[in-house]
Sequence to fold (110 residues):
Amino acid sequence: MKLIYAIVRNDNEDDVMDALMHANFQVTKLATTGGFLKKGNSTLMIATDDERVDAAIEAIKKECGKRQKITVNMPYVSGTSMVSYTTMPMQVEVGGATIMVVNLERFEKY
Ligand code: 2BA
Fold:
C-alpha cells in the first residue's frame, strides 16, 4: 500500500475531496500552513493500494488545475544596522498540488 500526501490550496480542497470520495478513495484532511507564505493550505492523506495511486493523482490534478504566478508582498528586513520592516513584491507560483507518495508498511483498522 501507499500513502499519498497532497498539499492543495484551501480553494480546491472541497472539489478534490469530493472527486476522491466519488472515485471510492478514503481521505483525511489536515489543516496545514505553508512555511513560505505562512498561509493556510490543506494536506490530504489517502492510503490506497499501489495500483490505485495513479488514479488518485489524476483526480487531484483534474481538480487543482494549473499553477499560476501571483505577486505577493513578502516581509523584507534591510541589511543595515537600522532594522527597517518593510515589504518587497515577489512573484511566486501557486495552485496545482504538491503530491508525495510514500510506502505504507502497515495498515490496520480495528
Ligand atoms: P508555501 O511554503 O507557503 O509555499 C507557497 C509557494 O511559494 C510555493 O508553491 C512556491 O511556489 C513558493 N515558494 C516556496 N518556497 C519558496 C522559496 N524559498 N523561494 C521562492 N518561492 C518559494 P508550491 O511549490 O506549490 O507549494 C505549496 C505548498 O506546498 C507550500 O506552501 C508548502 O506548504 C507545501 N510544500 C511545497 N513543497 C514542499 C516540500 N518539498 N516539502 C513540504 N511541503 C512542501
